[in-house]
Write a structure and sequence with these properties.
Layout: H1 3-11, H2 19-41, H3 44-47, H4 57-85
Length: 135
Amino acid sequence: MTPGNAEDRRTGAGDHGTAAAARRRATEDRLRAALAARADLLTHRDLRRDAPPQGHGRGVRRLRGAALGVLGLAAAVVAVCLLVLLPGGPQTPAPVVPAGTPGISEPPPPTPTPTGTGTGTVGPSPVDPRVTGRP
């Protein structure tokens, strides 16, 4: 079985010898010849692997990764320091309103003692004990 016959069966042309089938066969033959010629141009040297790259490619990537890690760590430390040490940070207490001056309250009025009971007890002094009469 030849490849041309298989295509004729697929397209339904058969061995009728029509012009369309002949053109298809000629096109296929030309394509096969072109591909075979191109394949003959390749040698084993064209298919060998290239030499591995030389230079600092791996070391530079490793250094760049370490530098980015250190830079990220430094940025995190700076952010924490700014949050903690600047005014208004979580460690700064809120301002407290100053206390007002304490007021002096009046002492309760003295209770009157009944006179003439003869008990001989003296009632509380009408003078405030916190105030002294010394000049």
